[in-house]
Amino acid sequence: MTATQTAAQPNTQTMHLSYARSTKATREAAQTTLALATAAQSGKDVGLSGRVTDVALFRDALATLIEIQESDLRYRGKDRAAYLAYLMKQGKKASGAIWEAQRAFLEASFRGESTLRGLDPVLTVDPDQWSLEVLSKDESATARLSFDNAGLQSRTAAHGSTFVELDKNAIGAVSGIPAYLPLTLDATPRASSTTAPRTSQYDVPHSWLRGFLQVQSAATLTAQTQTSSSTAVCELLPIDLYNLLLQLRLRKAKASPRALRFELVPGERPRVVIEPWELVIEGHGAVFQGAVPRVVRLFGRTRLALLHRLLPHMQHARFYLLGAGLPSFCAVSMPGASLTVALSSWTESSFAGAAAFDALVPSSDIDATVARVQAALSQSGPQSLPALMTSLKLSSTDARAAAQRLCLRGQAVFDVACQLLRPRTLFKEPVAHDTVAYGNARERHAHTLLSQKGAVAVTKVHDRGHDGMEIHGTVKDVAADRSYAPRFAFDVEGKVKDAWCTCPHYRRSGLREGPCEHMLALRVAYGRQRAKDEAMRDTPEGRAVVRAETRTLLRRDATGRQTVVRVSLDDTIVRVEFGQALLPPRHQRIWFDTDREARDAYFQRLDALMAQGFLDADRALG
To answer: In what order do the strands lie in the sheet with 4-7?
Structure first.
């Protein structure tokens, strides 16, 4: 049989994969052979084989990839009543055995929770490299491991993409590969003399495909073009990552925020602050090359602990920080190899799906551009976005939109480490747009409301300080001939912690069935308005409408001491608070005759502070 895809129950896709053997490592007296089971393809067998040049690096990198695939950071608690009933049935009392009973109960509950799972790892063999792609079990992190051709001696390859059988049972086999023996890699669909061919059939949820392909679409935002300035890029050395992982291992955060705050000043080395303890890790990598100071938060930091195996092989780790609601990418560079991990905090966050990727769904009128880009990749192979813009005479917006559409279809993948768009066919037929664009009918309805002029409006934004934000709005639903008043509150990590609406869906089921379309529409509208307002603040027209605002700026000296300046504009008054962190601030109040004079003085002071290396904490992305 061949690897095929057939129609399945709604919101799933059935996969039929034929494997001629199993993945295993065979150790002999003189060498070790690692056989990776690849799915047979009709008409062409994709795979490669050769002798690995750096066995230790290959072993540790592959084991790290499997651990990322098997990682699951979702909360696994269950109903207390069911657990107590289980204890009574087992005759257990409140003794030392209670914890063993709890563990057995939870394992049994989750073992039968669902038969659905994601795709097997994707193996892609290109003329210049080969790679493996995985998505974590909680669908909040992806990883792409690639090796250059120099990593295999006597390399033989058949180019293309296929699937590989690589699960948690393979961690032991891979981790046990000795570094002192030669290693032969055999990733071909050839049959084994001792194992009969078998067919693997399973259902892949559309939510898995959506997360996998949308994160790859987000990777295109890391591409550096002349008009691209929204992505902050910084570099950490192995010692920096070691210090970071050590502090995270020694401490456990019990309160929000649980983020890594990157403080980036042009011409200075990056600085990472571990929240909520405000521990400062001074970077030793290359200086930040951005034009303006940046403060960016990275969530999903727990996943970074899985990179500990790679510390002895790492040359540097480059972080691509996209901003609020979007994943961050960590590209680990090693001799002849790279591992790119996409990190996010979207586990069990139904609000994030509609809001985070709102900017990643390209318009429907770019099909001609997509066809041109796809033809260029087929003829010339992997290319950077600037090269595509030059050869096809495309704008930055059109080139990026076409790349995103190809990634969403499963017909290309963006190599963050090399900054190249690579052709990669995931299925025989492109993934349907409806499969990856919206998670459900409510998300589709929310974007329909957003497309109607004046239907969604943000009426109130209440800043709760350390407690987060509360957003109020109105939504005019023409189909229902009604107006609704949704609102939601999210914490400093950007996670929605409370929501409310006047619509029948919320009154009937609350949030048990997820947010209603009006909450989702308000969430996306607020994100769009925030991005627009921040962009307008850098223009004379945008500054002219500001009458009341407060910004907090900070700067650290060589000893790590932090100076905080808080500047406020209130009509004709400018207030300034400044001083060392954790100490009583000094105050200054300045009156002006007109609001224009006050506004000019307010922005002049902000610009002067930014020129002195202060970071605008209120513009922290993430």
So the answer is: 4-7, 12-19, 198-205
